[in-house]
Amino acid sequence: MGTIKSAIQGVTERIRQAAITAGRDPESISLLAVSKTFPAENVREAWQAGQLAFGENYVQEGVDKIAELADLPLHWHFIGPLQSNKTRPVAENFDWVHSIERLKIAERLSAQRPAHLPPLQVCIQVNVSGEASKSGCEFAGVPALAAAIRQLPRLQLRGLMCIPEPTEDLQQLRGQFAALRQCLQQLNQSGLQLDTLSMGMSADMEVAIAEGATMVRVGTAIFGARSYARH
Ligand SMILES: *Cc1c(COP(=O)(O)O)cnc(C)c1O
Fold it and tell me: pTM of this prediction?
């Protein structure tokens, strides 16, 4: 026992080391624990170790887990692909959505966000590899999508998210994170005040932190290897 706790301590130490190496304040990087495919009891164990923010990819699984853990003061982030017919439970149950790639989804989330809840915190997911098969908004479309999201009353745009193309080529990987950072800088130079770069996972968090990540999304290094049998 105690394995999730020690894994969180290990990841926290990796984040700290990577921040120091990059000349950054470790406090400027937050850890999102990605609990997809893992049961509520594992999330509870992570909470006992001090973890408050959790990421989920699948709407129904996430909503069920949120209900099961309603006694805990957790922050829930939706980070998976989102179809328009599934926006309502996300708007009603989550605190953040990282995976917005088109305006229609954002409009629905804003319209469906309950009035008694604070605005939904959102990031635009960007296709940093440029591959047609990858999800995310193209770089060229980001400024217009950001401007449109800013008009939506029940959403608060916080920043950008990416899932880079996996590659052994460290320079190529780093270049994808750098491109997302530069995109955020350009938005901020044009007058936006975005504070979130959601990038970096178990295998590449050090590279993402070197390029400015403010939130790393870590699953495997905390909860262990996933089995996708449920999905
Ligand atoms: C699963 C997932 C993660 C976590 O990946 P690990 O490699 O297990 O750390 C992060 N972000 C997204 C969008 C994911 O789907």
Answer: 0.96
